[in-house]
Automatic annotation (TrEMBL):
It holds the Pfam family TIR. Keywords: Hydrolase, NAD. Residues 22-180 form the TIR domain. Its EC number is 3.2.2.6. This is ADP-ribosyl cyclase/cyclic ADP-ribose hydrolase. Gene3D superfamilies: Toll/interleukin-1 receptor homology (TIR) domain. InterPro entries: TIR_dom, Toll_tir_struct_dom_sf. The keyword NAD applies.
């Protein structure tokens, strides 16, 4: 359960005066460094071949100068019916944390469907923030530019995501293409 501070912050962030315009069927969240040219690109292609409208940022948004691009991504999350989150080894950077926080907020406040794909990682590491996720959170907590309540909100969001039913793809199961 989220702390009262996190719930208050989430309530104020997600208070919408009117329902958002839904421009996308799926917001595809991934770390381009791990899955951008392979798995995520093939997944997008497979979805679009079925007539599904997908938002996927094909360029890795830089953590320091993400401003406009990050704002566009946050708006796209709100304008999506669902989100697919491809969780991979390096999915713990600042931009990914902001994305997953927004996705979980939309899941909780707008009943957005969220489907996680655990790509070559153990789902328990997402739920419990172990392995590389522990390292990323330790780095975020040590960063003086990031407020501890922000990190707590990201931890909550990752835990929520880790508890969702999804797909767990091991190294031996990942193919170069996806068939729907």
């Amino acid at each position: 359960m989220a702390s009262p501070e996190i719930m208050e912050r989430r309530t104020s962030i997600t208070s919408l005066s009117s329902p958002p315009l839904l421009n996308y069927d799926v917001f595809l969240s991934h770390r381009a460094k791990d899955t951008g040219r392979g798995f995520a690109a093939h997944l997008q292609e497979a979805l679009e071949s079925q007539g599904i409208v997908v938002f996927r940022d094909e360029v890795e948004v830089d953590e320091e100068d993400g401003g406009k691009a990050l704002a566009e991504k946050m708006k796209a999350v709100e304008e999506s019916r669902s989100s697919i989150v491809v969780l991979s080894e390096n999915y713990g950077n600042l931009v990914c944390m902001k994305e997953v926080e927004k996705i979980v907020m939309c899941m909780e406040s707008m009943d957005q469907l969220v489907l996680p794909i655990f790509y070559k990682i153990d789902p328990a590491n997402v739920r419990k923030q172990k392995g590389n996720f522990e390292k990323h959170f330790d780095e975020h907590e040590a960063n003086p530019g990031i407020h501890i309540e922000q990190v707590r909100s990201w931890r909550y969001s990752m835990s929520q995501l880790g508890h969702l039913s999804g797909w767990h793809l091991q190294h031996s199961q990942v193919r170069d293409h996806i068939d729907l």
